[in-house]
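Design job #97: recover the sequence.
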């Protein structure tokens, strides 16, 4: 029997108590990886994910991690290494949409919160794990961005700035790491049914508007992102670094040009 593609690999997926992070954690475990789960507030949901990973016969670690706080990140990653071993795969998934509002209205602390979690947080996690990956000559960093790394979004300027920053971090780091054996890739989901956008998919009117923005005409499901993530962190993607792979039902393909023009 063929070995599973991620057999024996150790992966960290931040923000894996729900949504896309949860689906990625489960997909990586299914592909053979041992997985470190993290949560900011929903411990019970996170423990449930860890249990599912164990039920697949993999090892799981689960603890609280606020990616924007460097000291808790230190403790978290030290515990992961102690419990599971050296990390091969880091999925920077934890993120927030933050307070919605025009730049003229939001406060400095609202801006900082989004940038701290969505941009500074991934840097903190990378900084902790990268030296080990470089020393061992292998590793994959997968940054979960968004279509809003390229699509502007009124009322979400900090979010867009953070996601665009994460994309450029991916590209610049890939150059820094060109000879190291470590790949850095970004995955940009479109509109995916998760707790972050429940206000949209629970409201028929908002949902109708959303569909006009998506050529495939429907919201995506978390598994559709997780399946691609699983490939991107595996050796099947060995020739991929410094790019964003966009999984968005065509959202970035200018849906309103499907007719007329
Ligand atoms: C946001 C979602 C939104 C999607 C498409 C994501 O980055 O978190 O709320 O539905 O982009 O606009």
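Job complete. Output follows.
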């Amino acid at each position: 029997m063929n070995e599973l593609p991620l057999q024996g690999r150790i992966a960290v997926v931040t923000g894996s108590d729900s949504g896309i992070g949860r689906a990625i954690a489960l997909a990586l475990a299914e592909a053979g990886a041992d997985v470190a789960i993290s949560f900011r507030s929903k411990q019970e949901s996170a423990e449930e994910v860890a249990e599912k990973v164990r039920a697949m016969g993999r090892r799981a670690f689960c603890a609280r991690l606020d990616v924007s706080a460097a000291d808790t990140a230190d403790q978290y990653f030290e515990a992961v290494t102690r419990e599971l071993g050296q990390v091969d795969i880091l999925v920077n998934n934890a993120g927030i949409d933050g307070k919605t509002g025009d730049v003229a209205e939001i406060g400095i602390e609202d801006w900082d919160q989004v940038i701290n979690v969505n941009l500074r947080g991934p840097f903190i996690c990378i900084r902790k794990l990268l030296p080990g990956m470089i020393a061992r000559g292998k590793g994959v960093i997968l940054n979960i961005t968004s279509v809003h790394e390229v699509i502007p979004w009124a009322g979400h300027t900090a979010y867009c700035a953070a996601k665009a920053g994460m994309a450029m971090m991916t590209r610049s780091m890939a150059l820094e790491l060109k000879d190291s054996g470590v790949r850095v890739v970004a995955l940009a989901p479109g509109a995916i049914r998760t707790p972050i956008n429940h206000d949209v998919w629970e409201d028929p009117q908002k949902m109708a508007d959303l569909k006009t923005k998506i050529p495939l005409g429907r919201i995506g499901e978390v598994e559709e992102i997780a399946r691609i993530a699983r490939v991107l962190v595996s050796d099947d993607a060995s020739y991929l670094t410094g790019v964003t792979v966009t999984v968005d039902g065509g959202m970035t393909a200018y849906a309103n040009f499907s007719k007329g023009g």
